[in-house]
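Objective 1b: paired records.
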Amino acid sequence: MKGKKILGLLLAALLFTSKAGAWDDVTVTVGSETVPAFVETGVTYVQLTALLEAMGGWETQWDREARIASAETDLFTLDVPAQRNYVLADGFSFETGRASLLRYGRTYVPLRSVANLLGAQVDFVDWDTPMMVQGAGPAACTEEDFDWLCRIISAESQGESLMGQIAVGNVILNRVSSGQFPDMVKSVVFDRKNGVQFEPVANQTIYNEPTEQSVLAARLALAGVDAAGESLYFFNPALSQGQWVRANRTYYATIGCHMFFK
């Protein structure tokens, strides 16, 4: 993925030119290219077309009637509806937290969430320190393990949002990377060291064909999209009390029907 070769997105300069409450223009550099950007109420927005071109050479099309900007990335078709707080990856909604904005006839998107969807992580220290966006590259995964990753995501979180399904995938991959669990996806899924780890293994739904969205979620989790941080556990409080997890692990976030813990 060409975008993965862009390991740094540097906030090179901050040019505050407007009064309080208005847009504050900033200069963002991706590799050697400058991407127009601004800050509004603490959120950095970048021009979508310039960002996609700099990260992967992806061309953006604008549907004037539908008011949607679209691009074919290496992982999915990206659609950005104007002034909505979500984007679409292959038609599946991915929440961005803040709505995209139109400025001077151009689409601007929240930097952190869209960079995350593209498999990059934004680290911001302070206004005098560069903002870095780094992509670790896709995680190694065999075809067999990819299949099991898709299946566990689908069985555990069918009906959840794309973000919720990615979060389940994050937990599986976090366990693979942790010394506390087996080092292959299939082994993590079927781990029985302290009892069956995942309900779909017990009720056999792990063998159901994964949904199209869960396949996308697996690809995105492997590409570095982060919804669950360093979480190693999750449970649905409607189905389980999660007493051991609550007592022994640190709460991270609730996404859809699941609570995630580090």
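Objective 1b, second protein:
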Amino acid sequence: MSHDPSFAIPSSASKNSEKRILNSQATDPNKILPMKYKWAREHYKKGVANNWIPEEVNMQKDVETWKNPKALSDDERRLILWNMGFFSTAESLTANNIVLILYRHITNPECRQYLLRQAYEEAVHTDTFIYSCDTLGLNPDEVYNMYSTIPSIREKDEFVVNMTKSIIDPNFSTEGTENIQRFVHDLVGFYVIMEGIFFYAGFVMMLSFLRQNRMAGVGEQFQFILRDESVHLAFGSDLINTIAQENPAIWTQEFKATLTENIKKAVELEYAYTKDCLPRGIMGLNADAIYEYIKYIADRRLERIRLEKVYNATNPFPWMSEVIDLRKEKNFFETRVTEYKSGVLNWDDESPANPTTPTQ
């Protein structure tokens, strides 16, 4: 079975003679220096620079808007509640995957340091929805049960659970080409599909409120979550690419086709969710425009893990790039001043680092 030569590594590299992400006897998980995977350290520093907590966000105007029966249409309330419902459980699912599965198999210390940072950020995201439910007076049973009561939300969650269930087995091992393929397959489910595709229709919807300075507190929290998720996605993509580079036998044409089909299926599930969540156009949004955006970001996700793009779609929401890419600025939507530290130092010297750019 042929593999992609772009992932070839020098033949002199012995499997257990140097640090590797998986199955390396040379890796001491308690010895972080010297570092081999400096991209993991750079993503960690970016996460620290983006630090925030939900209680910093003023929700008073949101409370006034939510309690005013004339301030929001039924469709707008539906959109907000559905996104609360999906994200509230999806963030917990992601955190559980990190704590219970990924940390156990990825023993490299610099990657583990980032996973600990990501796990903390997932806890902050979970706390965001607790804070929002408490502040707005939402019914938590309604919000937190949407993953079971709304079919299009349930289908997204089940898709990720089903495509990642093999490594939940406590007897799973990453030894051998087939098992490494299964592990990378599941990493694509965690990072590329869940965090890189399934979150993005919701980001467009909620940040559209923020652009109009409506429900700005909730919108600002979604903006901060998006900033975090862009770094999660960049780390996950680097992790996938590095494992494939160190294990080139996994990167067969058949495997690449499977990953591509999974991403295409995810795009359709996200579109089905979008149509349910946004049955009529509001705030200049409609389901077809968001579908075009989902296809656009899916192509970027495919290329980021060295697969061929599928859709050749254009970006109908160029303002989304600005939300992610600026590192220090006054909040775009004039809610408050937020500092994002820039100039993260390179681990080798004191010149500005050039880490992998987080992708939209």
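The radius of gyration is 20 Å. Strands lie at 329-330, 337-338.
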